[in-house]
Write a structure and sequence with these properties.
Length: about 350
Amino acid sequence: MPETPVETGGQRGYLRIATEEAFATTEQIALYRELLEEPGVDPGFQSLMGFYINSTAERPRFIFENLQDLGDRRIAEMDARGIDRQVIGITAPGTHVLDRDRAVALARNANDELAAACSTHPDRFTGMAACAPQDPLQAAAEIDRAVSELGLRAVVYNSHVQGEYLDDQRFWPILEAAEALDVPIYLHPNTPPADMIQPMLRAGLDGAIFGFGVETGMHALRIITSGALDRFPRLQIILGHMGEALPFWLYRLDYMHQATVKSGRYEAMRPLRRGAVSEYLRENFIITNSGVAWPDAIDFTQRVMGVERVMYAMDFPYQCPVEEVEELDRMDMPLDAKRAFFQTNAERVFGLAQPVDGGRA
Ligand code: 1DF
Ligand code: MN
């Protein structure tokens, strides 16, 4: 018997909201082309965007073209995969590789473009704000503008900024703004910084295959172990790629963190108010399955994190086979948990007050 094709509209009892979907602006690509010509360019950026911008192979061409569309083409690709709504953010590495002035301009213009597309397609698109962390106070102001004036619903933060991480207090105005506005920060991967990437680069492991996860999982851990979440206890951080594997690490993280703190080994690792690393992961993080259409991993993560903290992402256009949607539809999971995964967790996390049929019946 042929399979019923995936459809939008909630026929299975849930809408599908994909929460880590990417776009690029024309300005961004022009800036990236310029940057790729500069001597001494960051090796991770060179590896990643040198490939996507210049390769003539089929997959990078598909990705590059689809990144640049926020209109009918994207809607058609969503329809073909049964995606009711995309939560969209500027593609990695966003502004993070640019100098301060270019980063500020790109964030602002990208937020304006994304907000315009979201107003044109309010039932299909939700936007996440870019910012320029090179100027943290300006970034906080842009996040405020993007949320309060443009209606974007989250911040997408493309991980390290030339080797600097959010646990550095210099960046805390960004954390403060997100917490105050009650919007989550999607901590999206970047290639590892220059002083971390070389052994991965030589093996071809620096990108989404592994380097992304190592770099971004470490970033999340730094935020936890630095105590930043004791200062911003209500902040919510979204991690893709099954939490960059942190749920699988959790037992060891808790054990070794406790042992390390107790021995006073590192100045940078002080006792945390809530004690264990796992407390912070369970209370301040939401995990998506971007790039991991693997029911066993989703089931494990739901058990570790709670059903309310695991949500669906596709990672369009980087990884978007329709077969993955079908595989996830078939998961052996109660309908209410499946609805939480595909729909209602995202509605809560991004503040999308919307009826079950998405108002599209
Ligand atoms: C890739 C994967 C690139 C993801 C991405 O942005 C990205 C990739 C440049 O496959 O090279 O967001 N991803 O999240 O898995
Ligand atoms: Mn992604």
